[in-house]
Design brief:
The chain is α+β, with helices and mostly antiparallel strands. It has one domain. It is built from three helices and two strands, in the order H-E-E-H-H. It has a two-stranded antiparallel ribbon with strand order 1-2. A hairpin with a 2-residue loop joins strand 1 and strand 2. The radius of gyration is 12 Å and the shape is flat.
């Protein structure tokens, strides 16, 4: 399990976003948790379905850990 701080995870996510999605990184807070992804979702019906299927995490730190492969 990673012991990186939230700040370190954000920096890793930003670096990776520059490599894979022109620097685009989306953080979304929902009623029950966080979803994070590289890129910017276009929230038409097809993309909304895709976003709804993303795994939701109880903390931003856990969501970022998953995104950058620290789990």
């Amino acid at each position: 399990m990673s012991d990186k701080s939230l700040e370190q995870l954000v920096m890793l996510a930003e670096i990776t976003a520059k490599e894979v999605s022109d620097g685009q990184l989306t953080l979304m807070r929902f009623e029950n948790g966080w979803k994070v992804m590289f890129g910017i979702p276009i929230l038409n019906s097809e993309e909304s379905e895709k976003v709804s299927n993303y795994k939701e995490f109880t903390t931003l730190k856990n969501a970022l850990r998953h995104l950058v492969g620290e789990v």
